[in-house]
């Protein structure tokens, strides 16, 4: 089993400590999978600046396959993070830089390479919606992160993305349970088999096969919550695939329940380190 993150990469730049960390939804997925013992890769576009070199260096040291990545002339993505009233919040950045301005267009060679992967993960900030139909030619399951912004929950956007994916993730800490249920119903219309909605300390809800599953969280005193949702998603997805989930086939109830628990434990550990997965560099 191998998995791949397809999309953006950024440096999370912590202004209050003058430290930057590698990150980005697709990168985090690849790294967390590697931490769980799964061979993983990342496919995306890097810039040609200092931040790009830093991220590539750290991902290579972790053992992430970057062999199909592109390097383009331009500024790599970064997000500025600061400490506001005790919480780390995003305060600026360049909206993904070159990785979203000129995202990869999947070639025949790329798709041949991706045939070896059981699971592909991407997200709404990667600007790769046009490439998702190509992934449907593969046997891999496709997961997609819609984040928390309402613009990624419109009928137009769901209609562009959902027919080409198997698993949808939403951040729904600001939504009521009724709103979450309605959202899941809208997504299910497009044939999406699994819908996970994280709700922070309230625990996630997972919709699958007409059933609703309530997950739990493991409470820790967090050092940094960066990457908590990504790590939860990664651990949950990998457990489902390892338990036999395949395209057009629902995971078992037992796999779902045990996967939700494993994901909670893994996500809690992520909250005990700085950055999404450490590897900080002072600047």
From TrEMBL:
This is PfkB family carbohydrate kinase. Residues 12-256 form the Carbohydrate kinase PfkB domain. Belongs to the carbohydrate kinase PfkB family. InterPro entries: PfkB_Carbo_kinase, PfkB_dom, Ribokinase-like. Keywords: Kinase, Transferase. It comes from Brevibacillus brevis. The keyword Kinase applies. It holds the Pfam family PfkB. One of its GO terms (molecular function) is kinase activity. PANTHER family: FRUCTOSELYSINE 6-KINASE (PTHR43085:SF41), HEXOKINASE FAMILY MEMBER (PTHR43085).
């Amino acid at each position: 089993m191998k998995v791949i993150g397809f999309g953006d990469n950024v440096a999370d730049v912590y202004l209050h400590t003058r430290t930057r960390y590698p990150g980005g939804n697709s990168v985090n997925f690849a790294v967390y999978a590697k931490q769980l013992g799964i061979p993983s890769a990342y496919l995306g576009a890097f810039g040609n600046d200092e931040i790009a070199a830093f991220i590539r260096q750290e991902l290579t040291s972790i053992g992430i396959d970057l062999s199909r990545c592109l390097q383009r002339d331009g500024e790599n993505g970064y997000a500025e993070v600061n400490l506001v009233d005790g919480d780390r919040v995003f305060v600026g950045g360049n909206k993904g830089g070159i990785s979203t301005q000129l995202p990869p267009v999947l070639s025949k060679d790329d798709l041949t390479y991706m045939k070896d992967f059981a699971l592909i993960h991407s997200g709404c900030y990667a600007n790769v919606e046009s490439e998702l139909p190509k992934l449907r030619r593969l046997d891999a399951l496709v997961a997609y992160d819609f984040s928390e912004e309402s613009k990624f929950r419109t009928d137009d956007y769901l209609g562009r993305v959902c027919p080409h994916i198997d698993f949808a993730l939403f951040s729904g800490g600001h939504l009521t349970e009724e709103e979450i249920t309605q959202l899941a119903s809208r997504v299910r219309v497009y044939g999406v088999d699994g819908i996970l909605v994280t709700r922070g300390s309230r625990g996630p809800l997972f919709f699958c096969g007409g059933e609703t599953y309530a997950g739990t969280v493991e409470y820790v005193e967090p050092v940094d919550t960066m990457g908590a949702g990504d790590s939860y998603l990664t651990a949950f997805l990998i457990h489902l695939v390892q338990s036999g989930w395949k395209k057009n086939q629902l995971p078992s109830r037992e796999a779902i329940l045990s996967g939700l628990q494993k994901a909670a434990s893994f996500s809690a550990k992520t909250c005990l380190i700085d950055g999404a997965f450490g590897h900080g560099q002072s600047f």
